[in-house]
Amino acid sequence: TDAFGLLAHLLLQLEQPEKAAEVLQRAPAMGRTLEFYVAEARVFNTLGNKEELWKTLELMKERFPDAAATWYMRAMHQIQQERFQDALEDINELERVNGSSWNVIQLRSHVLYQLGQITEALKVINDALEQYPDDVALRLLRAEYYYGLNKFEMAIEDCLKAIEQAPEYAYAHQLLAATYLENGDYDAAISSAQKSIDLSESTSYLMGLLGSAHLMKQEDEIAESYLIQACEADPSNIQARYRLSQLRANQGDLEKAVEELNVILAENPVHSTVLLTRGYNYLSLRDYEMANDDFSKVIELMPKSLAGLRGKAIALEALDRRKEALGFYDQALE
User: Fold this and answer.
1) Over 38-90, what HEC string results?
2) DSSP states of 89-131 as a string?
3) Taking the model in full, what pTM does it have?
């Protein structure tokens, strides 16, 4: 059966998952190896067939309980389904059969982070770094967590240490650029982003970082060039398109600003920040019905959003619905 599994794997690499599934169906039922089930699981995962994928993962658990691949693939699936407690159990089994490997450290810290156990997630990485102080990937993983927690100075420290250890690692410079941007050091963000490009290639994400940094420096012409390049390279780059919308608003072209936000919301209709921004753009355009609709969606997503409550009150007042407006002003004041 390994030959069937290998053929399915190759077809999957050629982006032909349906043909890969057909090959797997023709495989003999007896003597299926771990490698066969790994290939089968990957095919079902690519096809989005969660029911068949889970059946395969259960068979792997039953037939190959001491294989690291069994528990790693199960943990990854549980994470994808946001079943984080179940994922932890599989990670424990992965550690049992494979020791405290990089996969175990990365998966455990990620799951703990998703469960809101931030201190525990960082402890996993801190303990690992004490044992492996020169592990650049671990250090950057901790930097990512610090970044997500808005602890930018600590993230910068880890990025700089990683760069000291691996100066040619482009991703370290990219993460440093993103962190500098959030920390308000725009010149450093530009320098780090350019260094990442020099070491690898110009990506939509990096173009977006450069455009955002120049926008914050009020260098609108340079920012516009980078942001347009970023959106053309990847139309789904939310950060770049949102910044481009801000630039259009700064230029006084609110209609174009709204158009950019519409593109984002077509793919992400419940993006509260974008809805909120579009709502205030509609207010400036005196399109109060549209503004009211956007603020209603924001409040539905975030009932205690001060900006959402205030925006809805302003829109209702402009629509001469003053009694309703007062109710939202009251909620905002509370």
Assistant:
1) HHHHHHHHHHCCHHHHHHHHHHHHHHCCCCHHHHHHHHHHHHHCCCHHHHHHH
2) HHHHHHHHHH-S-HHHHHHHHHHHHHTT-HHHHHHHHHHHHHH
3) 0.80
Token digits of residue 286: 């005196």
Nearest-angstrom CA–CA distance, 228 and 8: 40
**Maximum distance among all alpha carbons in the chain?**
75
- pLDDT for 206 equals 97
102: number of CA atoms within 13 Å, CB side?
A: 7
Low-confidence ranges of the chain (pLDDT < 70): none
Q: Which two tokens stand for residue 233?
A: 């390279």
How many residues comprise the chain?
334
Closest CA to 296 of 282, 313, 283: 313
| Token pair in block for residue 318 | 């402009």
Q: What's the token pair of residue 201?
A: 């290639």
Q: How far apart are CA 64 and CA 60, in angstroms?
A: 5
CB 210 within 8 A of CB 194: yes
What is the structure's pLDDT at 2? 77
Contacts of 59 (CB under 8 A, 6+ apart): 37
